[in-house]
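Hi support team,

I submitted a single chain yesterday and got back a structure, but I'm not sure I'm reading the token output correctly. Could someone confirm the output below corresponds to the sequence I sent? I've pasted both exactly as they appear in my results page.

Thanks,
R.
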Amino acid sequence: EVMESLALHGARIRPRVAAIKVLASSLTIGTGGSAGREGPIVQVGSALGSTLGQLLHFSVERIRILVACGAAAGISATFNAPIAGAIFALEVILGKFTVSYFGAVVISSVAASVVGRAYLSDRPAFTVPAYSFQIKELPLYVLLGVVSAIVAVLFIRSLYFMEEKFDEWRLNAGLKAGLGMLLTLAVALLLPGREVLGPGLEFIGEAIAEDLNLSLGLLSLLLVTKMLATAFTLGSGNSGGVFAPGLFMGAIVGGMVGSVAHSIWPDVAVNPGAYAIVGMAAVFSGAARAPITAVLIVFEMSNDYKLILPLMLATVLSTLLAESMFPESIYTLKLKLK
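Hi R., thanks for writing in. Yes, this is the structure output for that exact sequence:
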């Protein structure tokens, strides 16, 4: 919706969007919907920026800057990632890097991070063990990039396939949303821990832990059910983001590749959890076509520089392969269909 307003409506977002998104997203995520909180927060921040620009009778160009500032602030405060927040606004929301935008976006992102750290926490989003990286692991990370691209494309297709199916049903929007939540719950019941409900950030912490002790079968089931649950939740019209589900699925994909590699080459793939961290960035980047944002946000969330090389390799490879298989990103496909 934010990208639609920038492309089609002169960056003008109705003021009531902020209030509606807060309420709708609280209901979706609070009742266990498989969605992230970052999407609604980006929309709320962008709506506030657009509203301020309209009240002050700014030009369209200046309103665009305020919309980007609001988006950057949302990501920065949500994930305690000010650099990634700024780059997300430039790379995904605006789609271009210019000096005139950069300064304002960075200031907004830093300010949001300061406020978030003051009221929430100054710690990284995840506690990451001290993983090491060996050059001989690079082929495995190339494989992870390929698998991540396939999963990212499946994620995009499943989400919009389900959205099209729900659009075909002549039902009240509220009934569709309720039906989507019921289907999400039905999928969650397939798992004893109901891990697919909500954003799933707690499970990500388990997946990247040093002692990843989840079986390959359980990881496969988690991947399929999370993809279905997210498609049911968001495809039915409920409010939420795709950022957290993308990270969740990426952690699973990385955990699967790392576990298999560790069982075959234990001296090479020493830490399966390291692959889960890289997988988070690779799957999200393949879906969003935002490699810089993906690398930076996982780096800031984990606060670990040692994996930056495999992060960059797998993420860029996933982005390129996903784009060759499916040209539109999870953010631009809906805009193109309109």
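A quick pointer for reading it: The chain has a mean pLDDT of 88. Let us know if anything else looks off.

Best,
Support desk
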